[in-house]
Specification:
The complex is a heterodimer of chains A (about 140) and B (about 425). With about 140 residues, chain A is of the alpha+beta class. Chain A folds into two domains: about 1-70, VC0802-like (2-Layer Sandwich); about 70-140, VC0802-like. Chain A has helices at about 15-25, 50-60, 80-90, 120-130, 135-140; strands at about 1-10, 30-40, 40-50, 65-75, 95-105, 110-115, 135. The two termini of chain A are about 15 Å apart. Chain B is an alpha/beta fold. Chain B has two domains: about 5-325, Rossmann fold (3-Layer(aba) Sandwich), CATH 3.40.50; about 330-430, ANL, C-terminal domain (GMP Synthetase, Chain A, domain 3). In chain B, helix 1 packs across helix 2 (about 35-45), helix 4 crosses helix 5 (about 140-150) and helix 9 crosses helix 10 (about 385-400). The longest helix of chain B is centred in the first third of the chain and has 22 residues, at about 10-35. Chain B is globular. The chains are: A alpha+beta (about 140), B alpha/beta (about 425). Chains A and B meet through strand 1, strand 3 and strand 4 of A and helix 10 and strand 20 of B.
């Protein structure tokens, strides 16, 4: 249902992204999915990793600005129309998507979608009643 | 050679006599009417009757901006408040404004000294004076406005902003004298070039520029680009507003209106007076003001004086262009800004820590202020929307406190350099020469 996401605040400064990804790599954290949102003077790097609590601690210890949030993770078939169906369920139910990113799973024919919405519980209810499957932190760790 | 009145040519001996007479009256008046002054003088062991010569001025204690703040808003006024006909205010260092007041007689004096400045710049009754200083609590707009009217010129109270409209007014109304900050004069020059207005369509002949530091180089640029003569004017609201000192046709220092003010330049550390030509802090004593006659007010401006006779014939002492400040006050687009005001605003906001860096640049002749603010490590920042909202709310709060707009950038926690002891909060990239 919900999975832990690590967000890192990044000033638009040369080399900053390399520093962060380098730091995670050094500690053997595996990135499952990521997205980088940017404005003119800062960006937010969002990460789904195999060990979120460890990643949070390591980044904090290295003076990065980190915040952990819960986001919805759903697993869908990797074929045309599947993502559209999931989004339609949310929009018909009056839930707004704040951001979203997707990645293809190692499991053949499956894709995962990370969604942040304005009303998480309502989104879960809508998706569940429409037969859409969720991923858990364990699913992410075991990928 | 044109003068506005005979005082500008007063013999030095006569001036000194006039000054002493006015000083003694003023000291007596503040001692009687202003308790904080009486207390200060008692503490220093000096009575009004001890002021027998102009040199005795040095026995009087200094007044500093903090005194105005401590007695906010009207505590240092020396007249009954029903005699006050105008109030102005300037930004204070901690969000509290410095309030100044004027009686009818004070306004007459102020108008008179700005009229002298206009006249010295070559303005006459027949001119159209275009005032692009801000009108409001800031003394710039109404100060020059009063002088232009006193001179008998047609006064156009355009105020600041809307450069396009400024140009249209300038051309259509036949503005011949321009009053604004020197950097805005360059903005106007640039805009004239871009607008396709031919210089021959404009009647501009001279300009009176002040409220911010500038340089000889900027003067040359303004004179070349606008094809006018550019004159400097000095003032501060605590003393009067613009017109405390003004430049003449010689363009070599500003004449201080010594019939209304006694000036000293002191070593800011020891308080000892400095000889002509040596740079130090300008200290001004008001000797004609009724509402707020400050005694030995420390302006924080660094300048030097010269008593050398001036080619224009005026006998008033001249001060050089101020070289800087003894405090951390910044002048941005003509507005006084103290870093502590920024700190004050930031302290009232959530989600950030009051660690900040003010960066000032001059881009296309306009000052631009950017405030970098550290995000609090605990701020939940996952949504960009929230961060942008935060930036906007800081920007809004700064603008309402400072009276000018500033860019706000959120930066990573602990990314602003901490310096042991005195913190560095300002990077001023403006180059004046």
């Amino acid at each position: 249902m919900y999975v832990k996401q690590i967000s890192v605040f990044i000033e638009n400064k040369f080399g900053r992204l390399a520093d962060i990804t380098g730091c995670i790599a050094e500690h053997g954290i595996d990135i499952r999915a990521m997205s980088l949102a940017d404005t003119t003077d800062f960006g937010i790097l969002r990460l789904i990793v195999d060990k979120p609590y460890e990643a949070e601690k390591i980044l904090k210890d290295n003076s990065f600005t980190v915040s952990m949030t819960s986001v919805i993770a759903v697993g869908i078939d990797d074929k045309p129309g599947e993502l559209a169906r999931a989004i339609r369920v949310l929009s018909d139910g009056g839930v707004s998507v704040e951001y979203l990113y997707a990645f293809v799973s190692r499991e053949a024919g499956r894709a995962s979608v990370i969604i942040r919405v304005d009303d998480g519980d309502k989104a879960v209810e809508l998706l569940t009643s429409n037969g859409i499957k969720f991923l858990s932190d364990t699913d992410i760790a075991d990928m | 050679m044109k003068y506005f009145d005979v005082y500008e040519l007063i013999e030095r001996d006569e001036l000194k006599e006039l000054q002493l007479n006015r000083l003694r009256k003023t000291v007596q008046r503040v001692y009687t009417n202003v308790k904080p002054y009486a207390d200060k003088m008692d503490e220093a062991g000096v009575k009004p009757e001890d002021i027998r010569t102009l040199d005795d001025l040095r026995r009087l204690p200094f007044t500093v901006k903090q005194d105005l703040r401590d007695n906010y808003p009207y505590g240092l006024f020396a007249c009954p408040t029903d005699e006050v006909v105008r109030v102005h205010a300037s930004s204070g260092t901690t969000g509290k404004q410095t309030v100044v007041g004027y009686t009818r007689a004070d306004l007459d004096i102020w108008n008179n000294i700005t009229a002298r400045a206009m006249c010295a710049a070559g303005a006459t009754k027949g001119d159209f004076v275009h005032v692009s200083y801000g009108y409001g609590l800031f003394t710039g707009g109404l100060g020059l406005h009063g002088g232009a009217e006193k001179l008998g010129a047609a006064t156009i109270p355009v105020s600041t902003g809307n450069t396009k409209r400024q140009l249209q007014i300038m051309r259509d109304f036949g503005s011949s004298v321009l009053c604004c900050t020197p950097s805005y004069a360059l903005v106007l020059a640039e805009a004239i070039k871009d607008s396709g207005i031919d210089r021959s369509e404009l009647k501009l002949k001279c300009g009176i520029f002040g409220a911010e530091p500038w340089s000889e180089n900027m003067r040359r640029q303004i004179e070349q680009q606008l094809q006018i003569k550019a004159y400097d004017i000095y003032g501060l609201s605590e003393i009067m507003g613009p017109g405390v000192a003004y430049e003449c046709s010689e363009q070599n220092g500003m004449h201080l209106n010594e019939d209304n003010f006694i000036v000293e330049v002191i070593n800011p550390e020891t308080g000892e007076p400095l000889p002509d030509g040596e740079y130090g802090e300008l200290v001004i004593t008001c000797i004609t003001k009724q509402a707020l006659p400050l005694i030995r007010y420390r302006t924080r401006d660094i300048t030097a004086l010269t008593h050398e006779p001036c080619g224009c014939g005026r006998t008033f002492v001249r001060m050089m262009r101020p070289r800087g400040r003894t405090d951390d006050m910044l002048i941005i687009r003509g507005v006084n800004v103290f870093p502590s005001q920024v700190e004050h605003v930031l302290l009232s906001m959530e989600g950030i820590v009051p660690q900040y860096m003010i960066v000032v640049d001059r881009i296309d002749n306009l000052d631009r202020m950017t405030v970098n603010v550290e995000l609090s490590p605990d701020m939940p920042f996952d949504a960009i929307r929230l961060l942008e909202q935060k930036e906007r709310s800081i920007k809004k709060a700064l603008e309402s406190t400072l009276g000018i707009s500033a860019e706000v950038h959120l930066v990573e926690p602990k990314s602003i350099q901490r310096v042991e002891g005195k913190s560095v909060h300002v990077i001023d990239n403006r180059v004046l020469d």
